[in-house]
Every structure is written in C-alpha cells, then in structure tokens.
Write a structure and sequence with these properties.
The structure holds two protein chains of two kinds. Chain A is built from four helices and seven strands; from the N terminus they run ααβαββββββα. By secondary structure, chain A is an alpha+beta fold. Chain B is α+β, with helices and mostly antiparallel strands. Chain B contains twelve helices and eight strands. Classes of the chains: A alpha+beta, B alpha+beta.
Amino acid sequence: MVAQNDDNTLILLWIKSVLYSLVLILMSTLIILAPKNVFDIETPYLLATSMALTGDENLLLYDYMVYSTEERFEKGLVDDVELVKVDFIERNEIFAVKVYGENEKIEINDDYIFIISPNTPELNIEYYLVKNLEVDGINLPCRTFVMLFKDISKLINNIYIALLFVFSISVFLPISFKVIQSITKLVKKQKDFVR
Amino acid sequence: MAKKLSLFGLFFSLFLLAGCDFYTRNTTVAPTTQTTEAQSEFEIWRDSDDARDLNGDRKINEADFEIYQIKNNYDVWKNSVEALDQNGDSKIDESDFDFYRIHNFFDVWKTSDEAEDLNGDTIIDTKDFEIYGNYDLWKSSTEAMDLNGDSSINVFDFEIYNEFIEFVGDYHIANYSFVSSETYVINSTDIKVSDFGLYLSQMSLSVNNNGEVTATIPESIRTTLGDFYAVLLEGANNMTITRISPYIVGIDTTVTIDTVLVNFTLYLNETEGGYSTTYILGDLDGKPVISFSIIKDE
C-alpha cells in the first residue's frame, strides 16, 4: 500500500515537473516572440502620409530631377526616390512625388504620395514637401505630427517594454521556483524509491 | 574505339572552331555596329550617365550637350567664352582647360589628384570641393572668424559660414494679415489675433553666423502680452533658420504647450527683401490663415 502511494506521488511529481517545464518553455517562447515595440520607426510616416492634404497650396517644391530617356526615368523612380526619401526622414517630413501624365491621379503609397499631373514636364520627377495633414477636422503640420508621434511612440514603447519586463519576471520567478522545487522533490523521491 | 573517339574529337573541334568563327563574324558586322555608327554624338551622350539638364530648362537636349562639350572637349572650350588664361601664363592652352574643369566641376575634381577629404569627415563630397575652391580666399578675407568657439579659424568655421551666411542679418516683421470670418483672441490676453501684427511689427529678429535667431521684444509689449509673452519668447529664441532645399527655407522652433514640447516649422518663400510665410491655425474653425513678411534690414 505504501509502495503504491509512493508510486503515485512519484508519477504526480513527474507530471508536475513536466507540466511546469512546459509552461516555462511556452512562456519563454511567447516572451521571446512578443514584439518589442508597439510602434516602429515607420509608423508616424505611414500615418502622416495617409492623412496628408494633397492640394497644391499644401505642397512646396523641394527639388526636381530631369531624365534623358524613358528607361532612365523609370530607374530614377526607383533609385532616386529612395535617396530623396532619406533626406525627408532625416527632417521628419513627408513628401510627394509628381510625374507627368495626361490624367490627374493621386496614389497614397506607404511612406510618400505619388501624383500624376499634366502640369509636370515629361521625363521629370518633382519632389514636394507636404506641409499639413488633417486629423479629425484639425489641420496639423506634418513635421509637428511626426515629431510628436515619435515622442509619444518612444514613451509608449518604453512603458510597453517595462510592462513586458515586469510580466516576464512575475511569470518566470514563480514558475522557475515551481520547476526547481518539483525537480528537487522528484530527485529526492527517486533516490528514496531506489533505496 | 580509340579511332572513333579521336575522329569524334576532331569533328567536335572543327565544329567549335566553325562556331566561334561564325559567332565572331556575326558580332563584328552585327546591326549593333551599324546602330552605333548611325547614332550621333549627342544621342550617345543622351543615353549615357553623363546626360544632365545643365541649363535648367527641365529638358535634356542639344543645348545641354553643348554645355557638356564645353566642359569636356578642349577644342569646343577653346572657342567658347569660357576660355580664359586661368594660370596667368599669357596664353590659353590645355593647362587652362584643366584648371577650368577642376575648379568648376565637382565630378572632374573628384576624379582628379586634387581631390581629398579636406574636412576630415571620411568622405570626399561637395563640401570638400567648396573648401578646395573657396577656403583660402575666405580665410584671407575679413569675413573669416572663429564660429564654433574652438579658438582657431579653420575649415569647420568655413563650413558653418557657408551654411548660414545667406541668412545672417537683422530682420523685422511686416505685412501681417489674418484671414478669418470670426474674431479670435489670444489666450489670457485681450489682444485680437487680427491685431497681433501690430505687436509683431515692433519685434526685431537677428540671425547670427550659426543660424540661431534672437528676438528682441520691447518692454511695452511684454506687459500687454502677459502669459503669452513667455510662449512667444520661447518660440522666438528657439528658432533656427535652415535651407531645406534649393527652393525651401525653413525656420524650425519649439514651444512648450501644456507641458508638451511641440516642434513647429515656418516654411519661407524667398522675396526680394527677405521672406514671406503663411501659417494655418488648423485647430480653429474655418482654418484661419496668418501671413506675414520677414524683411531683412539693410
């Protein structure tokens, strides 16, 4: 009867150890995989671009580039736009790219606005600084919005990381303690059982 | 078996030789050669990386090619107005052409032996070209001064000078206008926003060699503005003026609003006597627009 009881306790300890270890592994994986930021670096630009006002009075000519052939123009749309983007990001500004086309069209890309306009000379890429955006009927300068959003993002990201850290500690410590306790008991029982 | 193999080898070698010959002949008389011959010098240039809008007419055409040739072809240069005795040896020859090219074109200078990292930022760029061309002249002029406070006058001061010299001076504000269908009053004062120009016109601004702006606000205004004076002063004294691009100048500033530090930029249009700007008060009904000029004092 005593032997059967010991048997049961041993099995129970094994189950406990395995379960706690599994929970520990699962929690560790979840914490490792959890995003480390609520907002990433691109978020303010994506938001600002999606809310930007695109009327002519809101666009300031920043610079332009002229290309000799259609092929070079197409290449410029890929390579040169990326280069100019760096300057805008450095200043926390958003921008619009204007190219020639018979029919006016505005596309909101991820981090810039693409405008087709009959007023832009052919084989030219015009870059415009976008001054304002609109949030809930309020006009705000894009740069003010981006910089404010960056400050708020930093604050939220720091709070999130702190909470994640506190949560990790509060989960890891008791579970680790339980795992160690179960394994110690298991080892001890195992020794007693062998004896 | 060996005979068969050697025969196959011989046949294969002949086939390869014939193939090579056929291929060679095909490429030498190929239509591409004819195309190249048919292409004019202009077309070759137009299709190359060198093609640029050199006269700023938003097109790349023969006119740009002529400018390009003056830069790159000695004979064309010699017959142009650009041909001058640059080295003072009383004749115009190829050494003057080299001098002209190296001193006027960054791309030529960059690939020459003269190119070096003159400001120690580990890259050779247009800043170094500017130093190469104008630093000595600046250093021997009365404009040269220690702008970064390191007790010596060097290339770093020259770079600061170049960046801000166009803005240095005293300014006053004029032509204030406030377009709105409603009457707004500045918080904690009785001053109507539409009358604020009267106060702004009494302020003066001064831009130093580092692009920093200092505002002078008369005592009489300080008392009238009350709490708003501190906001105005903070905004005015945190201003820095920057050239954002060849076409945009901006004044960046920060103001504390309800304990939050907010960044603002005034984008300036260049006018004959200074700058003009407009700003939308986007949180007010009807989005009123403030505009004014910043006039440079002679």
